[in-house]
Amino acid sequence: MLNDFYKQFKSGTDIRGVAVEGVKGQDVNLTDEVVASMAQGFALWLSAKVNKPCDRLKVTIGRDSRISGPRIAQIVADELKSVGARVLNCSLASTPSMFMTTVDLEADGAVMITASHHPFNRNGLKFFTRSGGLEGTDIEQILEYAQNGKKAPAASGVVENCNYMAQYKEHLKDIIKKGVCAENYDKPLDGFKIVVDAGNGVGGFYADVLNDLGADTAGSRYLDPDGMFPNHVPNPENKEAMKSICEAVKESNADLGVIFDTDVDRGGAVDKSGNEINRNRLVALASAIALEGNEGGTIVTDSITSSGLKEFIENDLGGKHYRYRRGYKNVIDKGLELNEKGINCPLAIETSGHAAMRENYFLDDGAYLCTKIIIKMAQLSKEHRSIESITASLKEPVEETEIRFEITETDFRACGERIINDLTAYAEQAEGWVLADDNREGVRVSFGEDDGNGWFLLRLSVHDPIMPLNIESDSQGGVEIIKNKLYEFLKTTEGLKI
């Protein structure tokens, strides 16, 4: 069992903590000693996973642009070297590229130093094998090794520098060349203007990919890595970040804009009019692309996708919508499971921008998603059509909101589950409340035109003592009506700060 100190580092299927000073009330816990113990734990776990002694392991290490990245990467490299592993130091890299090193470089395992979109003072470790990202139970095992001070036998390994990102960029360029198949094969994006917003994360490399293919990327923003993120949070879900890329598209009169989070496992886009292709619209576009050649296929999404999206996937695209749970690893694992059962599932995608396509190892790769969107844009231009024409029929809500309720009880999971059970029973008896028949997380209830004309979803956060509430309505003022109906139940609950 993990003690309270090491338990704090587990964040779903990642390890995360505070790596540098600078935020009041957040003391550094990812110390040199702690990181070293985690690296030793990973070596032991990986050795058992691939059935090789540590001195025969081949491991790659990459990092995002955070200021603590070089320190942590150096410690991990030193520890793996000390047990005899061959370590390939990839330096600045995207998270998806580190998985790809297990394919292209035949690495036994990969370590990515990142904390995704979190503030500059935080960092973490994300691990891959050829089978994909680790499960939560794997992270617990690594942390238990670290907690107990377990180490592999000392041996003499080696650390080598490796510019894998150059190979990864060529991989993306080849995909675009083949997908567009232009007359000028090596310059398929000649004549297109595409701007990139990397938010000072590691996604600036994507502008190089586009430039090499003939695109004009003048007007791109924040391509240089800067681990203090001085311009905006690198996060496609962040309003300031999306405002930035929308402005860049309009100012540059671009055909398309793309934006990434810090480590490029998520992406978003903006059409030539400066409108966001994000959240439900991004899911709709990715679904349309994924279902080409997969007619009738199943699209797995997280739980907060809109009713209009379900109609679009099933009625307009002829696919099936499998609404699952929040958490990118949850939707990916469900996509893998459905395919193993013989159900054609070409895409698993979360509204946050994590999009994993079966054709790409079910890897959530923001650069790959944007690459597929750019290919589709170029293909449509030959027909004098725009990318936004694909999702023109998507019905989007008139109003939407998210409220996050704090759980005040110590056993927050038990409290949240009790509230969900009580709300389910309440909804079953309440007049005009229609429980969703395809809901797999929390409580999702729909209301008719006279009762709010929309839906709410109340669920328990994947990791935190929080109950997020999402409400959407197809009518002006509908969110407030639904909110008031739910409040009649919430005010009778205990353990929830409302």
Could you characterize the architecture of this molecule?
- With 498 residues, the chain is α+β, with helices and mostly antiparallel strands.
- The protein is built from 14 helices and 23 strands.
- The protein has three domains: 159 residues, 3-Layer(aba) Sandwich (Alpha-D-Glucose-1,6-Bisphosphate, Chain A, domain 3), CATH 3.40.120.10; 225 residues, Alpha-D-Glucose-1,6-Bisphosphate, subunit A, domain 3 (Alpha-D-Glucose-1,6-Bisphosphate, Chain A, domain 3, 3-Layer(aba) Sandwich); 99 residues, TATA-Binding Protein (2-Layer Sandwich), CATH 3.30.310.50.
- The longest helix is centred in the first third of the chain and has 19 residues.
- It is globular.
- It starts with a helix and ends with a strand.
- The model has no long low-confidence stretch (mean pLDDT 97).
